[in-house]
Write a structure and sequence with these properties.
The strands form three sheets. Strands 5, 7, 8, 10, 11 and 12 form a six-stranded mixed β-sheet that branches. The protein is an alpha+beta fold. The protein contains two helices and twelve strands. The protein has two domains: 49 residues, no CATH class; 91 residues, Immunoglobulins (Immunoglobulin-like, Sandwich), CATH 2.60.40.
């Protein structure tokens, strides 16, 4: 039947189903208690161990509320459970490039920053990238190429669900951009003795 329902609730659902399906004047409801304590209600006369249950009449309340305009609101508990599910599914979301403490030499000050997880990130989710504390536009999967000044930089990313809630924040990655000197590799003039 339904997972997560208590035996009492399941039994009540069975009783209500039987009452709706069978005419009230003809149907008798039997209660069976199994040796393990499980209670079963049925409209079929069992061979033994059953007792007839007298159920109170169903109450029906008429209302003038137009149910055609009632919209279903998301259940807060289900919404929270779905966030926990996303956090579990994307717990390995991380910056994949650059590596922490990596140094980039001679790249024309460009660095590719990429991120990902073992599970594909759907387009309904978003990534917010922070470079040196400044927010950058970023696609959900992949990476971006940045042009940065020489020196030390820090980057991290946040994975957000369709509603903008934080699913996972990566660790901060520190990296360095350096350029060779114009004189690097050139021969030095030899001083003359005299």
């Amino acid at each position: 039947m339904h997972k997560g329902l208590t035996p009492a609730v399941r039994s009540l659902l069975v009783i209500l189903g039987i009452l709706v399906a069978a005419p009230a004047a003809v149907a008798e409801i039997y209660k069976i208690v199994n040796p393990d304590g499980t209670v079963t209600y049925t409209d079929q006369r069992p061979s033994s161990g059953a007792e007839v249950v007298d159920l109170p009449p169903l109450s029906v309340v008429e209302t003038d509320i137009d149910t055609s305009i009632v919209t279903e609101r998301p259940d807060a508990a289900a919404n929270e459970a779905s966030l926990r599910d996303l956090q579990r599914q994307y717990r390995d979301f991380r910056i994949t490039q650059p590596e922490n403490e990596e140094t980039f030499w001679g790249t024309g000050n460009t660095v590719t920053v990429s991120w990902g997880a073992s599970r594909a990130i759907p387009q309904t989710m978003s990534v917010v990238l922070y470079v040196d504390g400044q927010q950058q536009a970023a696609p959900p999967e992949g990476g971006v190429t940045l042009t940065l000044e020489r020196g030390e930089h820090q980057v991290y990313a946040e994975l957000r669900d369709a509603g903008g809630r934080l699913v996972k924040k990566t660790a901060v990655v520190t990296f360095f951009v350096k350029q060779y000197s114009q004189n690097f590799g050139q021969a030095r003039p030899t001083p003359r003795g005299g």
